[in-house]
Amino acid sequence: MEKFSTYRQGAVRLFAINALILIGIQTAFAQNYFSSTQEEFGKNRIQEKRFEWLTIKSNNFEFNYYRGGDKIAQNAAKLSESEYDRITELLGYTPFTTMKIFLYNSPKDLAQSNIGLMAPIDLDGSVLNLAKSRVQIAYTGNEETFKKELIRQVARLFVYDMLYGGSLKEVLQSSLLLTVPEWYMAGISAYISENSEDPTMLDRMRVAVMKNKDKRIANLEGKDAELIGQSIWNYIAMRYGKDNISNILNLTRIIRTEESSITSTLGISYNRFMKEWKEFYINSAYANTNDNKIDEPQQKSPISPKIDLTKPKEKLVLEKGEVDTDNYEFDAENIMKSLATETAKSKVDDIDKATPRLGRYREALKIKGPYAYENIMVANDVKSEFLMDPVRRMGMKVSLVLNDLLENHSIKLGLFITPVLRNHDIFLEYNNYTKRIDWGLGIMRRSVSFGELDNRSLYLFRPLNINAPSTAVIAIDRRLFFNRFSAYANYPINKNLRVGITPSLTTTTDIDLYEMGRENLTSHYLGYKAELVYDNTTPLFSKVLLGTRAKLRLERSYSLTSSTQNFSRMVIDARHYQRILRSFIFAARISYGRSLGSAPKATFLGGVENTINRTVEGSNGQGIGVPRDLRDVLFYDFAGNLRGFNFAKLYGTSHLLTNFELRLPLAQYFSKGTITSNFLRNMQFVGFSDIGTAWYGNKGPFNRQNSLNTEVIGGGDNPFQATVTNFKNPFLVGYGVGVRTTILGYFVKADYAWGLEDKEVSKPKLYLSLGYDF
């Protein structure tokens, strides 16, 4: 009866665990087991009220709104449908999916939205979220402003769908090959939503052209990029006809560069096109009315620009049948007739928008609903990456993110596996962002298998007081298991600052398969992790940030087996990114950690994270043996890069590390259209310096009698024992240069570094690694 009760309890426990897995659940890999430089920070969205969403559907759109927004949704449906034909005809593209539009009653309500919070993909300085085609817009109280913003967002979404494809697979493929400057995307959206022929708007565009006439337009950002882009698309429409806009857009998707698309479509060189575009705005008749004031719009109504078709141009002497492609001109009389016809047609369209255009029949407006909002889950992000686990070596991590369209809920699933299948990680987590306090649940399992140990892995024994020589080869058969169930709650103080608490239940097990008679070593821990996170960074371009982010983390684990296994760890990680010149970035990081308690855990320094060609620090030790308990390996910490030295050069229960880098992205100094290679487009040059140390005990590196400078000689079988202090410099300094780029979709780094140890410079070392910098 007692056995049956035990079995029933075990079955109930197993069922409960499985049920939690199926519900969905937080926190994956121990943060620093793979890469401390990829520590998660992130900004916050603050929810002050809950929205009960309703849905209405029109011919081509789906509008979602909440209480007080029914009139806004009805007006938005009528406006969007009235502009649908104009936008699709101008773009020469009709989306295959129904566009979903989320309408907020005010900008304050929009600030509470979680859309864009989960798994974004960087595209051309903007973020395209892959959870279906959708936009979100706030009603500001001004009808005209709302109308322009709605058309702008719809047009931008249509262009994204056109260039990158509607499915996750198409977007991922296109994003690797297609990169266009910011003016391209922002400009076409502004051109569609604004009346670009309005004299006031023409004057604003001219001011922008004059202001940026000597700058490389591919590097423009913000409002300048938008106005310059709008002026370019407007010039194409006025000079070459609106049909060429759709031709350029469609050709861009095929040949994947905006410069070649413009050249091939318009039949002139790109340099000549840019020259004539500038002359069109700077030297037109209306431009001379206020040449001395280019920093602000003119107060007088300017005259609309006219194209000077009578000005003679130098032409080459051509043989019969030859064409001067650099100075080719369309017939002036035909151009004037075409412009007149286009103007007349536009007036007719303005009078009666219901008139069919280009033979297309406008479908009568139909609005259905309201319906209850369907909060469907979609696949938002799929990632696969190679990781060089510091303990288990090379493996692949695959992760999938599922979330609803509003991104209030997300489920993350992940797997890390090596060629030795017994080495793996499995995790599943659920996150809820619907209220002011974000919360989640998570479960993970880690398996570590040890077979024959050699000089690549004997470093793992050193913190366990086994200092085996590098020539030793030890045959063992051990399995380590790490299981953790956790829950978390984060309270955002503001959009940049939050506090969080993560209680957890952890189990560790050491199984000796070689010595079958040995009892398994198992420990159970109750613990928590408290965090204070600050992040005010903003993206400059893909994977390059500006600003500051920092995290203070305190972890405590209380053993349910024995108080001698209790431990804690405190970690401070702060980073700052500063732009020096245009795209020349200075990045700095400081990391400090300390482990205390009856069984403090070790941190390793030396080498580069995720290194392909790792070399491990050798040992002159003479003691050969296998520790009885390897469970501490599951709690090892790896603090970051210390280039110029071997992996595991230093270790201790405390560490201090600084990293400084000067980063120069090559592509930011060239027009994106001139670099079609993804290899060159993502190339960066880096100069760096790393300074770090690690130690045991309470005497830090600034104390002359710290653990690094103190050595015990003798003892054991030797009756003589002495403590020697050598007063060497405890800090290691590494410096060098590096290059980064993307190969087959993976970010690859090469660093060439020298190490300075106690005033001696070592031979340079080459490090090849995967993954992004801090």
SSE topology sketch:
Elements: H1 2-23, H2 31-34, E1 54-57, E2 61-65, H3 70-91, E3 99-104, H4 107-110, E4 121-123, E5 126-128, E6 134-138, H5 143-164, H6 168-177, H7 182-193, H8 199-211, H9 222-240, H10 243-255, H11 258-266, H12 270-282, H13 332-351, E7 368-372, E8 377-389, E9 393-404, E10 409-417, E11 424-432, E12 438-453, E13 474-492, E14 497-512, E15 521-535, E16 538-541, E17 544-559, E18 567-581, E19 584-596, E20 603-605, E21 637-638, E22 650-652, E23 654-665, H14 678-681, E24 684-695, E25 710-715, E26 718-725, E27 732-743, E28 746-757, E29 760-761, E30 765-770
Parallel strand pairs: 2-3, 3-6, 20-21
Antiparallel strand pairs: 1-2, 1-7, 4-5, 8-9, 9-10, 10-11, 11-12, 12-13, 13-14, 14-15, 15-17, 16-17, 17-18, 18-19, 19-23, 20-22, 23-24, 24-27, 25-26, 27-28, 28-29, 28-30
CATH class of the largest domain: Mainly Beta
What do we call the CATH homologous superfamily of the largest domain?
membrane protein fhac: a member of the omp85/tpsb transporter family
Residue windows where pLDDT falls under 50 for at least 5 positions: 1-32, 119-131, 167-177, 287-315, 346-361
What structural category do the secondary elements indicate? alpha+beta
